[in-house]
Every structure is written in structure tokens, then in C-alpha cells.
Specification:
Length: 310
């Protein structure tokens, strides 16, 4: 591609800054005083590498912290892609398919990265430093919960036991109290919640409910249903949606589950998650049948979701 001439660039700058009632020359003068950029300043390397703060002197805690921070950065990138689908004024099939495959690749990477966790830490060290993390838990990843809200109709995230009593007219507050992950720290008979869940809700509940309202009509499934009947039959798009659904709710979840089982149920472990959650019941897909797009799966596939994966 041929570079623009100086005259063309100046004209383009005139147009850009005139459109926002700004003086182009002020910005050009600013360039005289700006310094050149370098990699470490652009990436903020020093700040990034100073975010790993251990609570113990056990070396493998650094692996644990770094790994989870990387996960949160990947979650941010996934949400970045999902928001583009949510906000698209005109949603094209190719664009939609491309975004789905992008986020699937991120989850593929997250799935394979559990080998770092499962093989990269000493079990005895983990079962020492993890007690200093109580009552914190990876369960408390707000970004992951937002990924779920942005992916599917809210009813598909409701605890399977309560789905028949909840619909689109149900207040968001009530629906929130019956999300599948509430089972990790809530006694449904007494209504009492664990400190894990209480702390999480105190920090994020209002933010979650706002996010739920926005994505109630802007999640991946609702956007799919906006497409023409012809586009809804697009084979590449359906394949991408099924792949994303299976990758997030089976492949990635089971990799997470097996890594947790490796450490928590190890000989030196006590079987308890750091936050005290009933992690096996809420994590394993066969119990909650978390499926983003159940209409794209056969009755048999839905019934057998997550079975025989232990």
C-alpha cells in the first residue's frame, strides 16, 4: 500500500479535528514534545510484573497467582469480543462466526493451560498455601460470570431445580438468587449464604444485575435469533455456536474440575475448596447442565450432557 503524501495527511488531519471542533495545529505541536514509545512502557511491563504478591514463602504460590492473573486477562479479551457482538448495529453472519471462533480459541488455550496448574505445582505446597487464601476462591471471578451472562439467555444459567418457576417476567433480583452457582455457597432451606458468596455479592451483585439487564436482549443467543431464518440455518455459524458451547461448558469446565480434583482430593488434601464451596456439585456439567444454546442440541445430547466424564 502506497504511503500518503504529507499534503494528504495534513488534509486528513484537518478533516478529523474540524469534525470535533478542534485545532489541528495544537495536536501537531503536542507531537513536538511527546517522547517515543517503547515496548515496556506500552505494555506496562513493570506494573504488570509487580502485581504478583505472595501471602506465603512457598515458591509454587507464585505459579498459582500468575496463572490466575493470566486467566483474568484472557477473560477480559473474551468479553471484549462478546461486547462487539452485543453492540453490532447490523450483525453479519461471518462477523458473528468469526467472534465465536475467537472466543473458542481463547477457551481452548485456557483448557490446555490447566496442565500448568495440574503438573506445575507441588501438591504439598499447594495444600499449605491455599489455607492462607480462605475464604477467597476462583469461584469469585466476576469476569467469568459476565461471560456467561453475555453468552446465553438467563434461564439457562438458573439452577436446574428452579427453571420451571422462572421466566422472562421474573425480577432480576429473584433470578439472581437462583443462578446455578448460588449452590456453591447457599443453603436453600435456610437461605443462609457462606462468606464466600456473601463477600462476592457485596462486591459485585449490583454490577451483575445491571449487566444482566443489558444482556437480557444482547446475549449471543438473542442476537442469533435476530438473524433471518436463512442465516440461522448457516452451517458454519451453527457449528461455531455448538463448538463454543461445548468448549466452555464441557471441555474447559472439566479441565478446571480435574485440576481442582488433582489438588483438593490429593492424599494431603482435605477435599474442601478454599472458599468452602460444594465445588464438585456446582462445577461438574452433569449436575447443572449448563448449556448456552440448548436449542442447537438434540434431546439426547441435552439429556447426556456431561455424563461419563469423571
Amino acid at each position: 500500500m502506497k504511503n500518503k503524501s504529507t499534503e494528504q495527511l495534513v488534509h486528513a488531519l484537518d478533516e478529523k479535528y474540524s469534525a470535533i471542533n478542534q485545532d489541528k495545529n495544537v495536536y501537531l505541536e503536542g507531537l513536538l514534545h511527546s517522547k517515543t514509545i517503547n515496548y515496556w512502557d506500552y505494555i506496562q511491563t513493570d506494573a504488570l510484573l509487580n502485581l504478583q504478591i505472595q501471602r506465603t514463602n512457598l515458591p509454587d504460590e507464585m505459579v498459582f497467582i500468575g496463572y490466575h492473573q493470566i486467566n483474568e486477562l484472557i477473560f477480559k479479551m473474551i468479553l471484549w469480543e462478546l461486547q462487539q457482538v452485543a453492540k453490532a448495529n447490523v450483525l453479519e453472519v461471518d462477523f458473528f462466526t468469526d467472534k465465536l471462533m475467537r472466543v473458542s480459541r481463547y477457551f481452548d488455550m485456557l483448557t490446555s493451560s490447566f496442565a500448568i496448574m495440574q503438573e506445575g505445582m507441588d501438591v504439598e505446597q499447594y495444600n499449605k498455601f491455599r489455607h492462607t487464601l480462605t475464604p477467597a476462591s476462583g469461584f469469585q471471578s466476576a469476569q467469568y460470570r459476565k461471560i456467561e451472562f453475555a453468552s446465553t439467555e438467563l434461564i439457562n444459567l438458573i439452577d436446574a431445580r428452579f427453571r420451571k418457576s422462572i421466566d422472562r417476567n421474573t425480577p432480576f433480583e429473584h433470578a439472581f438468587e437462583h443462578l446455578y452457582w448460588q449452590a456453591a455457597g447457599k443453603d436453600y432451606e435456610t437461605g443462609k449464604k457462606s462468606i464466600l458468596l456473601t463477600n462476592f455479592e457485596e462486591r459485585y451483585k449490583e454490577e451483575f444485575i445491571t449487566f444482566m439487564k443489558v444482556h437480557n436482549s444482547k446475549n449471543l443467543w438473542s442476537r442469533y435469533k435476530e438473524l433471518s431464518s436463512e442465516n440461522q440455518k448457516n452451517k458454519a455459524l451453527i457449528k461455531a455456536m455448538r463448538h463454543y458451547d461445548y468448549t466452555v461448558n464441557i471441555t474447559w469446565v472439566m479441565a478446571h474440575f480435574n485440576a481442582a480434583k488433582h489438588y483438593i482430593l490429593a492424599n494431603s488434601g482435605d477435599g474442601e475448596a478454599t472458599g468452602g464451596s460444594n465445588w464438585q456439585k456446582y462445577m461438574h456439567p452433569k449436575y447443572q447442565k449448563r448449556i448456552f444454546f440448548p436449542e442447537l442440541w438434540s434431546v439426547e445430547e441435552v439429556e447426556n450432557w456431561g455424563q461419563n466424564l469423571d
